[in-house]
Design brief:
homodimer, mainly alpha, Substrate Binding Domain Of Dnak, Chain:A, Domain 2, 2 domains, 87% helix, rod-shaped, disordered N terminus, AH/BAR_dom_sf (chains A, B), coiled coil (chains A, B)
Chain lengths: 478, 478
Amino acid sequence: MASHGKPRRDRASEYENQIKEIRAQLTDQVKCLDTQVDFRQQLLQDMSEFLRRKAEINLEYSRSLEKLSDRFSSKIRNSKDHHIFRKEQNLLSPVNCWYTLLNHTRQESRDHGTLSDVYTSHLIPRLAHIGEDLSRLSKKSKEVGLQQQEDLLKLVSELQGAMKTYQLYHSDCMYAEHKLKEAEKQDEKRSGKLGEHTASSPVADRGQRRSSLKKSERLVEKRLKKYLENSQKCTKARNEYLINLNTVNNNIENYYIHDINDLIDCCDLGFHLSMSKTMRVYLQAEEKVQMSRQQSLQAVEGAVDNFNSQTDKNKLFEMYSETFSRPTKFEYQPHEGDEVSKVRSEPLLHQELVSRIQHIKSRLESEHLETEEVKKTLKATLQSLLDLIGVDEFDLSEVFQSSQSTESLKSTGSDTSTKTSTAKRRANQQDTENFYVSKFQKYLLGRSTICKLQAKYDLLKEAIEKAAVMDSNISGQV
Amino acid sequence: MASHGKPRRDRASEYENQIKEIRAQLTDQVKCLDTQVDFRQQLLQDMSEFLRRKAEINLEYSRSLEKLSDRFSSKIRNSKDHHIFRKEQNLLSPVNCWYTLLNHTRQESRDHGTLSDVYTSHLIPRLAHIGEDLSRLSKKSKEVGLQQQEDLLKLVSELQGAMKTYQLYHSDCMYAEHKLKEAEKQDEKRSGKLGEHTASSPVADRGQRRSSLKKSERLVEKRLKKYLENSQKCTKARNEYLINLNTVNNNIENYYIHDINDLIDCCDLGFHLSMSKTMRVYLQAEEKVQMSRQQSLQAVEGAVDNFNSQTDKNKLFEMYSETFSRPTKFEYQPHEGDEVSKVRSEPLLHQELVSRIQHIKSRLESEHLETEEVKKTLKATLQSLLDLIGVDEFDLSEVFQSSQSTESLKSTGSDTSTKTSTAKRRANQQDTENFYVSKFQKYLLGRSTICKLQAKYDLLKEAIEKAAVMDSNISGQV
């Protein structure tokens, strides 16, 4: 109604502009959906290419790890020690740990191989299928969409036609009305003149006038008929135009609100589902690798938990039992016919033995004291040494958290301050170790000395006591 | 005592054999411990070499993954779509997922780089330190051990000396006893003769005999003194021998029971602790990688969970709002001066309109029924199609469990039966899809038709009702 009163040219061009805009929009819509499809195809292609390359990288990684673990496993198989250890079925704890480390690496190799296989055999074909499905479905839904657009444009063009017909018939109607009014005016004028002249004009004139009046009435009648005819035609044309207008507007609304939605849904059909299924296969595979890695790491951890120097030492003693078994004691070998087999105190020797045992006793006591001291120092030194060895000098979380890029890693953890502190700690460790070993040697020597003194003391004591018993027997006899 | 009565040669050689055996055992012990140290050094060297190579492999893996993710990330950065999506800050769900996948890969690259760095900067130096510590400590404890062995052998050799002294003195003692007995026998014989001859022999003879007796008694006295002297010497030597014997046996026991244990402990000092600490760094690093991977996989999983076609469609509408916004309605454009703007029923047209609306009504009803049917079929077909797309056709657990080696993988999961079933499923999917799309098109057409008919129906109904009202007004007036 805004265009009410505008020149005809403008009204028609207003529709035309609107139609031009809609046409452009429809074309843009097709283009936009095509772009989306192209974009998705590109995405699928990129992901495929990405996974293809990632599969290669993983296969390469898998092979390198396999070669690595094989190299060291075969080295174990070929070593002579291997037979000893395998036979024993009792691996020393660090060797056992080394085996689990190699197994872990072999498992890593297998898992990355499987990963590579999952990419190649499962994911890439799925992406290809998604691409095929997408291209087929998008083509089909585009066809359906174009059909709908065509229908819409057909309606719009029908609207244009209906409007034109209406305009034409309305013009005709207006013209007929104009003509009718003209005739009516003429007729009115004539019938007025007739009434004016009826009394004064001659009969012949009157007859002439009456026939002219009749003619005019007939014209009015004829024009009225024409007008009514045109008016009806105009009403019909207007009705059609209005119906077409409503149809077009309703169908445009239907197209924009429902059809576009449904067409995009049809084009999308299954895409998100397939994509998410594909990605879930990817995630599942990664999850499996995570689990497998966790398991083989637990095996390594178990081996580390089992590190035990005492058990290893005992295994060593078992393995080399001949080398470490105590030799038979040296037996007393009495000289021909000598029946004495004990240390004997004789009256003339007695005093010497007594003074000797006293000397030994005092040496034994002081040696015990000293060695006990050394032992205490040794124990304390051992603890400090183990503390020095066991000290934690860096935190891996930092190394992992601060690693924002591969480049920045190169220096972390091996920086100068860490190096200096390590060097300091190790120097300290060596000093403590030197002190420990010197104390250790002193301790062993002390223990040997005690052992020797004790051996003498025991025999002398026995002899002296025996002599005392014999003495008292003798004095008792006396 | 078993050797009691054996010839002297055998007794001495028994000790010698024992000593020979001990010497051999002691040498073997040193050799055995040396072998253990060599074995450990070899283990450390193998582990170092293993980690060095594993670091290389991981660095290579890290670089390949970095290059891979960079390649696709830069492709995104350079694409024109990127700007659109980045600006929007509203990524479409598959694109978002693709970004998280690239991020995950970048994180993997970083983690493996860090792993490589941890091997190189932390583990390998630690192993080198363990090797140095081991070599230093084993050398020192070997020296201490050799000193103890030397002491032991010195005791043994002292035992041999003491035994020889004892044997010598016992021989002397026996000889002195023998000589004493000989003199006593002679003396007895002489003193017997003296008693025999005392009454009958001449005085001069008697004096001669008495002096001979005195001489014999002096000899006995002299030999007794000698014997007592030797006997004491023998007792002292036997005492020394017995004391030495006890000392040797005690010290051998001490060496075999305590010293060897302590020497091995000293040589082992810190080895197990350092090894376990090193391995724990390895485990910690792997743990961190596990955690990091878990995190970035969770991000990918989140992106997969967010796959949503409806949200994506709405984002698309937002992004291309101009393309998808409803155009302005076509307005009614009345022809010059025409004041009628509604469909009009006029008496002459009335019947035509009535029969027209009846026809439309019946068409509308049947079209509604038909379209409703099509809609139902469409819905059911959509569900079967989604079921076909969403079907799970393989189990990854099998792929991972059955993978005992990288070689055996190649065929799993991509075997013929799976391929056949996939091909069948996809053929089935395409058939269903074709059916779906044909129904979809039918549905859209039906809806458009309903839309058109409804638009006509609504206007006609309005016009007819209005005409009826006017008619009744007129008849009311009449």
